[in-house]
Amino acid sequence: MAAEAEGSGIDPMHQFLVEPLFGRHLTFAGYDLSFTNSALFMVITAAVLWLFMLGGMKRELVPGRWQAAVEGMTSFVSNMMTTNIGPEGKKFTPYVFSLFMFILFANLIGLFPLGVVPGWHPFTVTSHITLTAVLAFFSFAIVLIVGFARHGLHFFALFVPHGTPKVMIPLIFVIELASFLVRPFSLGLRLFVAMTAGHILLDVFASFVVQGFNASGPLGWVVAILSFVMIVGISALELLVSAIQAYVFALLTSLYLNDAVNLH
Amino acid sequence: MDLASAKVIGAGLAAIGVGMAALGVGNVFGSFLEGALRNPGAADGQQGRLFIGFAAAELLGLIAFVIAILILFVVK
Fold first, then answer.
1. Quick one: how many helices (H) and strands (E) in chain B?
2. Are B72 and A12 in contact (CB under 8 A)?
3. How many CB atoms lie within 10 A of CB A92?
4. pLDDT digit string (tens) for A141-152?
5. How confident is the model over B12-71, as pLDDT tens digits?
6. Distance in angstroms (rounded) separating the CA atoms of residues A237 and A1
7. How far is B28 from chain A (nearest CA, A)?
8. Domain that holds residue B17
């Protein structure tokens, strides 16, 4: 790696390392089935999400603060589904809501400053394409299943927009098909890269703080303090990016579902 | 020029693409704000389209970042 070769000590990629907890490997029939830090943080995300929803499901007539927060989330997603798909979008609201909340909570838990507890390393599950690609393939599979179940082979009309001249149909069909097939990759890649880039940035500036104070000199302190101010700003930006990426993932899923349900 | 220097230069060139995406994202939000200030009543209904445009512009910058990472860590 380039960063290690210089011996500068900055290794921003180390935080993305998936490793078994307590260094214990569990192999079964030739497969490594160890409980990794990635799996641990997925479980933590699901548990926090479960607690959050449980606290808001009291169904009181006058909602308290917690219930209002949960209802705000659910009505936000169901409004998005109704505006993008129409009344038929109600069926898909549970899926898109789970997707949105899981990504949002995973992003936010990844930003949680767990590193201040000795021996703990925060881990962002959404910064791995293994997770985001699986979520994207779920969405894509649902689009395909719903599209072919509702429209049969007429679903291919999606690739020929209305009013296309006859001569252009083969060309347009190929282009639209390519753009349709790229969707799951762009959907998964966007979330994965946005989270990875943000965490690399945070790690690089955090290294500047440590190295600046170790450099023993007023110039080092100036660099360290400026980097620290930068970290505070970038953290705020990352909170925004976490929410926006979760929203964009859910929004694009609902748009793709709209194609499958309504065929333009 | 040896491969190691060429890789670092290539990754730096790929980073230009990320800057271009910054222009694109700024353009999306700037144009939205310009339109929203002229007709604030219609602004709320267009937020979905705003984020679609943002996602499309941002994706191309993120792909440039992926290219930089690929050049640095995958090219042997």
1. 3, 0
2. no
3. 23
4. 999 999 999 988
5. 999 899 999 999 999 999 999 999 999 988 888 888 889 889 988 988 888 999 899 888
6. 28
7. 15
8. 3-73
Chain A within 8 Å of B7 (Cβ-Cβ)?
A: yes
Tell whether B13 is within 8 A of chain A (Cβ).
Answer: no
Which residues in chain A have Cβ-Cβ distances shorter than 8 Å to B62?
189-190, 193-194, 197
Strand, coil or helix: A62: coil
- Domain of B10, CATH number, reads 1.20.20.10
Chain B residues within 8 A of A189 when measuring between CB atoms: 59, 62-63, 66
What's the distance, CA A94 to chain centroid? 17
Give the minimum alpha-carbon distance from B1 to chain A in angstroms, rounded to a whole number. Answer: 16
Select the residue of A5, A197, A251 nearest B51 (Cβ to Cβ): A251
ipTM: 0.83
Question: pLDDT, tens digit, for every residue of A49-65?
Answer: 999 998 887 777 788 88
pLDDT of residue A250 exceeding 90, the answer is yes
Q: Is A7 left (phi over 0), alpha (psi -120 to 50) or beta?
A: left
Contacts of A84 in chain B (CB under 8 A): 48
Q: Which residues touch A231 (CB under 8 Å, ≥6 apart)?
A: A202, A205, A206, A209
Does the beta carbon of B62 lie under 8 angstroms from any beta carbon of chain A?
yes
Do B54 and A244 count as a contact with CB atoms less than 8 A apart? yes
Question: Contacts of residue B24 in chain A, CB cutoff 8 Å?
Answer: none
Confidence of residue A122 (pLDDT cuts 50, 70, 90): confident
- Please give the mean pLDDT across all residues of chain A: 87
Chain B CB contacts of A194 below 8 Å: 58, 62
Q: Are A1 and A19 in contact (CB under 8 A)?
A: no
Task: Report helix, strand and coil shares of chain A as percent, to nearest 5.
Answer: 80, 0, 20
Total of domains in chain B: 1
